[in-house]
Amino acid sequence: MASSAPQRSSLATSSRIHLQSSRVTVDENLLTETYNAEKRKLSQKRKTLTSCQSSICGYLSPWPTYATGQTILHNRKPRTDDYRKKIGGWKRSTLGTTKPRFLEQLENYLRKELLLLDLSTDSSQELRLQPYREIFEFFIEDFKTYKPLLSSIKNAYEMMLAHQREEIRALEPLKAKLVTVNEDCNERILAMRAEERSEISMLKKEKMGLLKLIDKKNEEKISLQSEVTKLRKSLAEEYLRYLTERDARKILIADLNELRYQREDMSLAQSPGVWGEDPVKLALALKMTRQDLARTQMELNTMKANFGDVVPRRDFEMQEKTNKDLQEQLESLRDDYEEVRKEHEILLQLHMTTLKERDQFYTELQEIQGTSTPRPDWIKCEDVVAGGPERWHMLAEGKNSDQLVDVLLEEIGEGLLREKDFFQGLGYQESILPSFLRFDGVVRNKKPTKKDVINLLKDAWKERLTEEQKDKFSDFFFKFLESRFGSDAMDWAYTIFENIKLFRSNELMRQFYEILMEKKSESVYIKQKETVTQLLKELTNVDNQNEGVLTMEQLSTVLKNTFPLKKEDKIQELMEAGGWHINSSNADLLNYRSLFVEDDEGQTMPFVHKLWDQYMSEKDEYLQELKQELGLELREEVTLPKLRESLMIIDPSLDKQTLNSYLNQAFQVPVIEVPEESEENQENVVAQVRTVLERLQIIDIRRKGPREQEPAS
């Protein structure tokens, strides 16, 4: 709304500039005519003033300016008593001096002309100069000696005034161009703000996704830390168990050695052959054995000292492998943490930027709310609309403010239309008016009810669909009225036209008005009727029992088969308009015939209305896709071959007849299929992109098949 205020001010300024320029032109014409008329008067009055010219005789009168007589149109302030006495003395001294007759006639003439002028108009200053011009011309003509000087002075002033008028005319196109540039800049600003809003919404969504990712990574980090703590605890327990096992093994080895020594000593003591050996040999063997024992004990002590804390290789390798895995996990977690930290910093920056933008937008919102117009209180209309609160609630149900304004205007307009007894004919302008409105004079208001007008429109459509459509729709409509009402056809034509122009909220009246005024082609209405009839026929064919009911699943299947190009969400919208909702099951029954019923005012059910809305939105998308494929601005021109190529790209299923009909409507020329060597002649057929899209918007244009997808690289 903030951007719409400068637009309104610029439009108001441009309108004031155009009005002022038109006033300047009108005032100049008026001044010219007034000047010519006054010039003729001047020639007549000059004859009456010639009698006094003899008193001039080529020199100025010595009559004093303070003599008897009043100065013309001068408002003087009251003077003091001394000044009055002084002036009184002068007047008494000059009392015998009389004003020249020529001067008195000139003053009387000037006073009379100024009183006759209309100073309330914008050109009052120009008109005010005219009497002074005439007096000046009298002086120029009468004072022959000063005539060249006075004429040059007058010409200099006239040339300066003409120069100023030319400069004003030269600046008018620049003002109009300034208004156009202002409008373009406002449109660009609105487009940039829309892009910024979409980008902000995308950044907010991305921010929420990154915050969720950070929370997920933090949870994984906490779980890994708890797992590392458990592994460290289990490693300490294993280490203690291995130490205990090592000490037990040492004690067991010592016990085994002790038992072995005891067993050897017992075997030597019990063996009878030992005593028969040589004692020297036995002593030597004992000595060597003791040395071996001492060396072995020393090696054992050395091994205990060196490898007392050594774990088995198998356990070492297992622990080393576990440690390596944990180290890799730790490195991975560190990398993930670093990435998450960087993303968190970026998100913090985005968050701060978003907060600043939010504060800025909030400030703008407060300013807009402070300067915007408050929302109207529609409850006040309950006591004004005929029918009281109940009828107003029925009219206002499900409508927004814009639609409520239309409803209120229709109610007011209906009352005013009822009060009219006659309409004024619009004339015979063939280039502007349709044939059924070409009449000069007064026509009667037949004052039919809204229901009568709707029934008459339905009868006209029935007759139009049954005959061959050769004439224009407006010509057919007037012939229909002549066949129905005879000599009162023109009265009924104006009456129906005023009604359908007023009741724009009624779907049937709005479509009939758009087709009569050639804003829409009648093929749009006929094709829509054929589509609805075909859909009802398909639903009836599925209803084998002829009970008038179908399941939601059957309705969905028929819709997909009848409209193969509609997407799933469009089918879902039609299902919801038909009565399906989230809690419904596919087995729920639906009275499909009630979807196509019309009320007394010709209004269709929400299902058929949704079909029409989808058709209009699909047409807009189709034309927007065509504009993007052309790759041209709205003011640029497009050739016929270029438009044909673009249509075949976005809709490859177009047949030649339909394609030629689109081209014929776009360029308003007959189009036929020509060989490639003759296509150069069609390069001369051009039109603006804006004009082409507006012309295609009038006719029934729709997609014939899917667009071929480009192969993935």
UniProtKB/TrEMBL annotation:
It comes from the Eukaryota. Residues 286-350 form a coiled coil. InterPro entries: TSNAXIP1_N. GO terms for cellular component: cytoplasm. Residues 107-216 form the Translin-associated factor X-interacting protein 1 N-terminal domain. Keywords: Coiled coil. Pfam families: TSNAXIP1_N. This is Translin associated factor X interacting protein 1. It comes from Myotis myotis.
